[in-house]
């Protein structure tokens, strides 16, 4: 399970969250926060794409996982990265690079 993160809310917001739990709408304040975030992404889907882009840029997730988070196909997510001016770097071994160079040289003959 991921490490718990903390954040600050105003006293009234904390009271509101507690009231929702006491009223039985949620099992915990954590559940209130999760639902609030889900609603945010539902009403502002562009934010979900921005989250995916930032997580991908920081190297925290793969391009496939980022596309999944953004609810896009991988080719569409790659296009989104290009539209945002983000350069993708492909990791490859020296062996694969040498093989690719060999194929390019062979094709030029």
Short description:
By secondary structure, this protein is mainly α.
Structure description:
The protein is mostly helical. The chain has a domain at 11-85. The protein has six helices and no strands. It has helices at 11-22, 29-43, 45-57, 63-70, 74-83, 94-108. Helix 2 packs across helix 3 and helix 3 runs antiparallel to helix 4 (63-70). It is elongated and about 75 Å long. The model has no long low-confidence stretch (mean pLDDT 91).
The dominant shape is elongated
The biggest beta sheet, please?
none
Order of helices and strands: HHHHHH
Gap between N and C termini, in Å?
55 Å
Q: Which residues form runs of ≥5 with pLDDT under 50?
A: none
Strand residue content? under 5%
The percent range for helix content is: 55-70%
- Radius of gyration from the CA trace? 22 Å
| Helix count from the secondary structure assignment | 6
Structural class: mainly alpha
Would you count the extended β strands for me? 0
Index terms:
single chain, 109 residues, mainly alpha, 6 helices, 67% helix
Helices and strands in order:
Elements: H1 11-22, H2 29-43, H3 45-57, H4 63-70, H5 74-83, H6 94-108
